[in-house]
Amino acid sequence: MLMLTYEARLAALREELSKRGLDGFVIPISDEHMSEYVGEYAQRLNWLTGFGGSAGSAAVLADGYQGKGAAVFTDGRYTVQVREQVDGNLFDYEPVPETSPAKWLAANAPKGAKIGYDAWLHGIEWAEAAQKLLAKKGVELVPLDDNPIDAVWADRPAPSDAPAVPYDDSHAGRSSADKRAAIADWLKSEGYDATVISALDSVAWLLNVRGADVANTPVALSYVLARADGTADFFIAPEKVTPELSQHLGNAVTIRPRDEFQGALADLKGKTVALDPNHAVAGIFQTLEAAGATLVRESDPTVLAKAIKNAAEQQGHREAQARDGAAVSRFLRWLSIEAPKGGIDELTAAAKLREFRGLDPAMKDSSFDTISAAAGHAALPHYKVDEDSNIPIPPSSIYLVDSGGQYLGGTTDITRTVWVGPGEPSAEMIDRNTRVLKGHIELARATFPKGTNGGQLDTLARMHLWAAGVDYGHGTGHGVGSYLSVHEGPQRISKSGGAFPGTDTPIEAGMILSNEPGYYKQGAFGIRIENLVLTVPAKIDGAEGDWLGFETLTFVPLDRRLVDKAMLSPAEIAWWNDYHAQVRETIAPRLEGDDLAWLEAECAPL
Predict the structure, then answer these.
(1) Do the domains spanning 165-306 and 308-602 agree at the CATH topology level?
(2) 165-306, what's its fold?
(3) Which residues, in sequence order, are CB contacts of 434 under 8 Å at separation 6+?
(4) For 189-233, what is each residue's pLDDT tens digit?
(5) Taking Cα atoms as reference points, which of 25, 284, 30 lies closest to residue 148?
(6) Is 492 helix (H, G, I), strand (E, B) or coil?
(7) How many whole angstroms from its chain centre is CA 571?
């Protein structure tokens, strides 16, 4: 089949919009579940523009309007990448949050224009805000049930038909029946008849199922309608259902074809339905409203329960981290030998790390695309290497690798910044890395009263950088799932503000977060140190009330060549030595020969 150029794809979309009587269209990176990562069938923005990042959107106007009539919107993480991948002759590059598709359309669409959007890809709050903004300019926002890009994307991949599989209670630590009963109790106590669970990881957690429909995240494309009587409808493509899955779900869960979901919503006339605007697309709200249901905006009742890991999940994470630590340690030893010779590039390094992880049969997948970043690329916090951007790892430079694995017991996420010899890192590199390390230690050692949120902890990780007049532009910590999403809410450690949802959520015992301060010098080098931590009760003599702290879960050596010991306090040196003693204790039994000798040397006291 002839591949259309991006210019031809844009022209085909405009022709389709004209057939529908539309003057424009908005294209997000999203699926029907508002997932962070989406299947190939839902990569509409990538098909139209060539942009391969994980966050962004575009807006297209019909022919004849001012300028190019099309724009792609990305935040500062993708300033370089979007220009490498998207043709500037076809699309304007627009920065977020300074502008947005709605603001751009309000400024560029003529009065009376009809702008379409796929109601099954956008959140209800986006739709309401965009509609209000455009209405002021005399522009109508029109919800669509089908996507005009699908009409012109001739070779669009089909959604995955991989089977959904039971997730054993020994890993989950809690039965699906128990989880559904807790939701039913909540619905009854609030006077609600039902709730729609549409986030894929929430469905997976609630029913104790996993799948293979989205890269890096073991979920199955499906919905759940949970009722106050404890029953639930599970909407999933019939070809994905096995006898084992049916037996696992039991009689209280009715399995229905996924394409019956919208019709089932229409049958809820007169019912009171709880919906989470952060996870349910506008199409669900609009279908229920049209049916005559009463809608109540409530948080997805699985989100907090999923974030607080039970004892089995905590132990599963510890085991997964130990397995992962051994693989990453083998990789770092290999890198220390091969990279200084030259000839190793970013893609080769990422593939080698995947190879080391794959030696463990418990490793099921990566948890996200590896950030394998050399030299100036390391200064791009969310850099994604591909054939076009790939560069050799230069000797005498910093290399940053942010990666993770999916194991049956847990999900890992680790960043290590290493010096690639020969020679020594610059004084500036050592200073910045040591300040990042000091911030990492501050957060790792923190104790705080119950009720503290991530916004209140964030400054601890930045304070030593701030003292030098520098900072980093991303959050310090995100939640992590149990053999689920590597980015999980509701908790987050970040600067306070509406731009970072979850910052105000109190951190509770059982929550897992990343601890990942960094520093980035544009075009030169980047530094990030990331471990995962488990929130645990803190024991403080004479403490009043309940206090919490963190148990470090990730065990891989840190690069001492990038540390100025003179900048560290005695307590920080003690943390370093204690941490590396734990690395040795945890990882040494899993290594042998030269790998073990390397680990022993790296874990020697500072």
Answers:
(1) no
(2) Creatine Amidinohydrolase; Chain A, domain 1 (3.40.350)
(3) 562, 563, 564, 567, 568
(4) 999 999 999 999 999 999 999 999 998 999 999 999 999 999 999
(5) 25
(6) strand
(7) 33
